[in-house]
Amino acid sequence: METKTRNIIIVVVIIAIIAGVGIPLGIIFLVPKYGAVQPGILLTPGAPEDVASNRIIKIGVLGSLTDIQGEGQWNGVYMAADEINTAGGFKIGTDTYYFGIVGEDTFESDAQLDITKGTTAATKMMTQHTPHFIIGGFRTESLLAYQEIVMDEEIVFINTGASTDCFAQQVLDDYDTYKYMFRTMPINSTSLGGQCITLFAAFAAVLPVMLDKPVNKVVIVREDLDWTLPMDAALNAYLPLFGYEILDDIAYPITATSEDFATIWQSIQDLGAQLVIPVISGTTGITFTTQYAQIQAKCLIAGIDVQAQLDSYWFDTNGGCEHEIIMQTLCRTAKTPKSIAFWDRWIDNFGESPLYTAVGSYDTVYMMRDVIEACDSIDSDDLVAQMETITPENPSLTSVSTLEFGWTKSHDVMAGWPYGVTLFVQWQAGGAKECITTGGALYPDTIVTAPITFPSWGIND
């Protein structure tokens, strides 16, 4: 959407509000500065109109571009490319280059997953668009298949969506084949589980004091998908060490309906659970949370719910997400010196807060600009060699989501402060999302923005 059109709509909305016309607040999220995702078309946002084709470094985006995860990746790449190009591009030797962006839809977020759609998208990307490197990935089962097409072509692929440990393990097991595979977002599933466990370790100390009773009865609710398995194993292994009793561990199909979740929540309430840990990446998160509010289960939700990272989640659940605590890469707090400025630019450009795939993809473009300039090359092997110099001892400092960025030997992002740390953010009254404390265990309390709140209908004894 052009800026002029966007501004006209904003003026109309303001006039309507002043006039007392009932316009849902959600309309604000429908007025982005940038246009919609355009798969299959090479775009060069911010670059000079007459830039020569041999001065364009092409970024391929492979993801579920029709869903929020892939859209976030596209938008993150687009915004970073626009900023870099507008600022004058970057150098290889004495020549100036600019980023182009081209995407193909893998449809990997679909509930009825068809892996062949991902491999078809990757084949089209490699044969028709010939990118210099690729950013994307989300659903493990799909990415495992279509990454092979990229690896066969020896093109660098930076995963910004799939957390499963196996992608890093492949680099260790078969370096020659998978050395082109890296991950910048999120931290792996085991580390996500570890950080969730750290939160619950802090909860074990503070919640009994806040609620004046023992709080130790837990139920895990997770998608029946491969990426949830390492985290589930970690939760089951470590939560009992902090005095928690795991009453149930529910793995549901990603085709689950409202009726299915009504049954799940009734079971949770009957068990007397006090804390529920979701491990959810897809749209079922909306139904999960909506049914929680309808049943008014006497427990606190805290865990992974990717849909809940979006501002629109408040409207999607009719406010039913109030008090839900989620892992979120970023919110409007000074996680790094660059975080708040990035956050505000993103809201201005897209009208809603960024998903983790968006933040990771944005950071990755800036990292790759620095890598290209440092090695003075766009050759894949040169890029890999330069990327491998980014270590905890020699970190990248361009990131808006981490204070420093470093790899492990498996090309996985480092976990733990000040590297790969996920914030715990709670939905609070009126649709505000606030960063809550982990007692200093995961990140300093200086970035906490509000205390924890609890549902008005209480928590089970």
Question: What does this protein structure show overall?
Answer:
- The protein is an alpha/beta fold and 461 residues long.
- The chain has 14 helices and 13 strands.
- The protein has helices at residues 3-18, 68-86, 115-129, 140-152, 166-173, 175-178, 189-211, 228-238, 258-271, 284-295, 313-316, 339-350, 356-375, 380-387, and strands at residues 56-63, 90-92, 95-105, 133-136, 156-159, 181-183, 217-223, 245-252, 275-280, 300-305, 325-328, 423-428, 432-435.
- α3 (115-129) packs parallel to α4 (140-152), α7 packs across α8 and α9 crosses α10.
Proportion of residues in β-strands: 15-25%
* Fourth-level CATH superfamily of the largest domain: Response regulator
Largest sheet: 7 strands, mixed
**Total strands:** 13
**CATH top level assignment of the largest domain:** Alpha Beta
Q: How much helicity do the residues have?
A: 25-40%
CATH architecture of the largest domain: 3-Layer(aba) Sandwich
**C-alpha geometry:** globular
CATH topological fold name of the largest domain = Rossmann fold
User: Which class best fits the helix and strand makeup?
Assistant: alpha/beta
Order of helices and strands: HEHEEHEHEHHEHEHEHEHEHEHHHEE
Radius of gyration: 22 Å
Alpha carbon gap, first and last residue: 52 Å
Strand order of the largest sheet: 8-7-9-10-11-12-13
Number of domains: 2
Query: What integer is the average pLDDT?
Result: 91
Poorly predicted runs: 1-31
Number of helices: 14
